[in-house]
Hints:
The complex is a heterodimer.
Chain A: E1 5-7, E2 10-13, E3 19-24, E4 31-37, E5 43-50, E6 53-57, E7 65-68, E8 75-79, E9 88-95, E10 105-106, E11 110-114
Parallel strand pairs in A: 2-11
Antiparallel strand pairs in A: 1-3, 3-8, 4-5, 4-9, 5-6, 7-8, 9-10, 9-11
Chain B: E1 4-6, E2 11-14, E3 19-25, E4 32-38, E5 45-50, E6 55-57, E7 60-65, E8 70-75, E9 84-91, E10 98-100, E11 104-109
Parallel strand pairs in B: 2-11
Antiparallel strand pairs in B: 1-3, 3-8, 4-5, 4-9, 6-7, 7-8, 9-10, 9-11
Amino acid sequence: EPEVTQTPSHQVTQMGQEVILRCVPISNHLYFYWYRQILGQKVEFLVSFYNNEISEKSEIFDDQFSVERPDGSNFTLKIRSTKLEDSAMYFCASSPLAGQGEKLFFGSGTQLSVL
Amino acid sequence: RKEVEQDPGPFNVPEGATVAFNCTYSNSASQSFFWYRQDCRKEPKLLMSVYSSGNEDGRFTAQLNRASQYISLLIRDSKLSDSATYLCVVDNNAGNMLTFGGGTRLMVKP
């Protein structure tokens, strides 16, 4: 079964450092997403991406965050200057079309720890 | 008011029991509804979609009441492997953004 893959599985960084979280969506999917989950809290939407541009973003997705699809396969989330409160599990997801909640697949996540 | 609200639990039930979870959502324009399952520190996985007419998948039954903005999940004949957190999820924007509830934790005991 095709799957969304995320690397690394764990990332430890110092406050103020830049991090890049990487995702390889399912190959025929067109919509890509980032969600995050702070330990003990709910899963929160960050951003959706289609046709090489952001289609929706939440209040969490401020100027410190950016997304990019640098080539035909990778989808990245960059946090420019990490804060302690950025520590969370970051999930990438993809779907073939919009409005396809039934066909939304999540990666296994990157646990980001900011020290 | 939280957009998607769930009782966090935990619900501790014996194997074979029937258990029901409820969820309320605040946005009356919400379009699609789902139950996801999340195991500890793993990614959410779709359990089932929720339709207005109600739908069943094996031991799992989901119901939607749009008038009351209420969603339910019934699990019959609980198995140890059903132990997980069940997430109520609402799609407000044609699939571009899912809103998750905080989850209800289920623990099935032998």
